[in-house]
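lol ok so funny story. i was supposed to be doing the assay writeup but got distracted and ended up predicting the structure for this chain instead. priorities right. anyway since i did it might as well share w the group, maybe its usefull for someone
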Amino acid sequence: MNLYGYILVVKIMYTVLVLSWFSYYDIKYRDIPDRYVWLSLIVSIILFIASIPFYLGRFGYQLLIGYTVLSILLSTGFFAMLYFMGFIGLADVFVVSEIALLFPLIDVYDIIYYKIEFPFHLPPVLPIILYSTISSLIIMLFKSLFISIKHYDKLPQDIPLSKKIALMFMARPMTIRDFLSTKYYYPLTIFKIEDNVLKRITRLTFDVEEEEYWEYQEEFRKLVEEGLLSPDEYVWVTYGVPYMVPLLIGFILFLILGDTPFFELFS
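and the output, tada:
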């Protein structure tokens, strides 16, 4: 194995370690400390710079620039849009960008376990994101099946069927009493007082960067103390699917399958 082979192995091991580490924080705290994100970004940039001489020697500057720019656009561009729409956290944007920097070119396909030779390959970050998205959808599907069987009767009756299905994918019912003692759950059932009338609103999204779960707990606690809500009333809350976990699954699937399933599908 030459020097770059060792660098490639280091990058793969580093990525698995970081994604596993961040998955732990994402599951337990629903937040990744900024210092860890910045540290991992710096290391990723260093590894990218260390790989440039080998990229130039094997692929030339045109492929290096083309694949790197495309990888950044597919990762940072798309995830930044999701971040500004409030669907994901800023750490997700940084981590996906790091993967694009660590594996911008197709050299990583040399060590894929199950591979078929194709005239060209997708930028590695693209199948990684696709595998991650599929994994996330599968997790949500099993979750929704469980919810539909056990808690269908607790769905709000004043919302359309499409919204009920989306709610089963994204959330679970919980009594207000239980919600007040949990951490990192965000309510999709919220309450507003209009014209001295308490209105119940069902939403499907929340801003992960702007909203704090404990602020809703304080609001709900105040409504209970004022006698406007019963602590045994059910609301729908979401913990979400921590994206670091599907991203780790997606990266491992990529190391096994590469982009072979996508070419097989379209061929």
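The chain has a mean pLDDT of 89. The first helix runs from residue 3 to 29.
back to the writeup now i swear
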